[in-house]
Design goal:
globular, six-stranded mixed β-sheet, alpha/beta, 16 helices, three-stranded parallel β-sheet, binds iron/sulfur cluster, Transcription Regulator spoIIAA, about 450 residues, 3 domains
């Protein structure tokens, strides 16, 4: 649905500014699963990927403006894998080959009629569909580290906790002989042909982002040698021209921020003194990577977490000296304290980072690309004006902050979507202002990019 529709629910195919035909039906997982079942009676259908992952429990569907059941029930599939899924897929295949039951596989969900004892029951589909308070309670229960169960009428969706993906697992996965052939009908992926994943997970826990419930809210980094070996292999690829398109992960500068307590700890890493913020392993990796014969340049195109980057001037200097193409992506998203609190993005002031970046890049054409979000819950006219004021100020200083403006889109399972649907902050239960009408959302965007009134 995100691919097929704009944040204002316009079909992208008909979008006059950026028409895009995905070739996928709406709710593709549902459509494909329901087509496969009658065609291949007795087949086992395993759902995976981001759509299945985030729709594993009852969820608010922005495009239908209602709460939908967990995907397993509507798709009639047999098992659902959430998160990346390599280890789960192997275990499922092994069990099927041995004609064994598929219950209990870490990182999967099943439908059962009974509620096993060790599962924590969260508010049912019926509850969350009828009560905003119950919807918030369910939201607060979501975790990849728990046995969770949600009743839908007389059946339960059971979630088995995510398996601990370790460094060795990622090294093995990314050490596989991928062809890196990009099918011609996906030109937009060309830019990623020679990109390198250094780690998984993100410790940011931004309210509007679903990554922490998909890849996880802990960092799992690959071994440096495994990454360097992958780059060496790429230099032998017939189409490699010497450029690594990107070296990073969901957030580029979290490589090496692994923590031994990670798998069991529920606390917030960003506020924790145990977290290694030195960027030491990342700086070492960057130095090694660019010295590999056949490599002309290693780009970092993924966004960075700027408050973390401020902990290491050496990292910012390395990045600016060797790994940027004149542009560094940062995601402040907003400037209003109230909105940043609801986004869980209360970080060090953007201005501090800008000054540091400018000082490090004195005399060089290196710019910041800002990701800004309008119409997020909590963002009324006053907050939008505050953000517009900051944008005007940055423009006066010769920057182009509006390049990365997006209208908030409620995607399943995020805390911000819970705020959008319930009008409540699940963390406090307090009422939250939510801009819901198209005119409110368009107006907030117009204020930032000063579009003519008619738009
Ligand atoms: S101990 Fe701290 S750094 Fe480690 S996982 Fe827990 S919160 Fe994160």
């Amino acid at each position: 649905m995100l691919v097929n529709y704009t944040p204002l629910k316009r079909g992208r195919a008909k979008d006059e500014h950026a028409p895009y035909e995905s070739g996928m039906p709406d709710r593709a997982v549902l459509v494909y699963a329901n087509k496969i079942k009658p065609l291949f009676p007795g087949s086992v259908i395993v759902l995976g990927g981001i759509e299945a992952s985030l729709r594993r429990f009852a969820h608010y569907d922005y495009w239908e403006n209602k709460v939908r059941r967990g995907l397993l029930l509507d798709s009639r599939a047999d098992i659902l894998v959430y998160g990346p899924g390599e280890l789960q897929a192997i275990e499922i295949a092994r069990r099927l080959e041995a004609s064994q039951d598929l219950s209990g596989i870490p990182g999967t969900c099943l439908v059962k009629r009974e509620l096993p004892s060790r599962f924590q029951e969260i508010p049912s589909f019926e509850d969350v569909s009828s009560s905003p308070g119950q919807f918030c309670r369910a939201q607060n229960s979501f975790s990849n580290r728990k046995h969770l169960a949600q009743r839908h009428d007389n059946r339960y969706i059971l979630q088995y906790p995510m398996p601990d993906y370790r460094t060795e697992d990622l090294d093995w996965i990314y050490g596989l002989p991928f062809s890196r052939k990009i099918p011609p009908q996906f030109p937009e992926f060309q830019m990623a042909q020679f990109s390198i994943v250094t780690h998984r997970g993100c410790i940011g826990r931004c309210s509007f982002c679903s990554l922490s419930l998909h890849q996880g809210d802990r960092i799992v980094s690959r071994n440096e040698e495994s990454i360097l070996e992958e780059i060496r292999r790429l230099t032998r690829h017939p189409r490699f021209k010497g450029y690594i398109d990107d070296l990073g992960g969901p957030t580029a500068n979290m490589y090496g921020m692994d923590c031994k307590a990670g798998p069991t700890c529920e606390r917030d890493c960003l506020g924790c003194r145990t977290l290694d913020r030195s960027h030491r392993r990342l700086v070492h990796l960057m130095k090694q990577a660019r010295q590999i014969p056949g490599v002309k340049k290693v780009f970092v195109r993924s966004g960075i977490r700027y408050d973390l980057a401020m902990e290491s001037e050496e990292y910012l200097k390395e990045l600016s000296d060797h790994h940027l193409s004149g542009l560094l992506k940062v995601a402040p998203e907003h400037v209003s304290r109230g909105v940043l609190r609801l986004m869980n993005k209360e970080t060090r002031p953007l201005e501090e980072f800008r000054r540091l970046f400018k000082r490090i890049n004195k005399g060089r054409k290196q710019h910041l690309k800002y990701y800004l979000m309008v119409a997020h819950p909590g963002s009324g006219k006053k907050e939008a004006q505050e953000l517009a004021g900051e944008v005007r100020r940055l423009e006066k200083e010769g920057e182009k902050p509006v390049e990365g403006v997006q209208i908030f889109t409620p995607t399943p399972m995020t805390r911000s979507t819970c705020m959008y649907y319930t009008g409540l902050d699940p963390a406090t239960g307090e009422k939250v202002f939510v801009p819901r009408t198209f005119s409110e959302k368009k107006e907030q965007k117009r204020m930032l990019i000063s579009l003519p009134k008619k738009y």
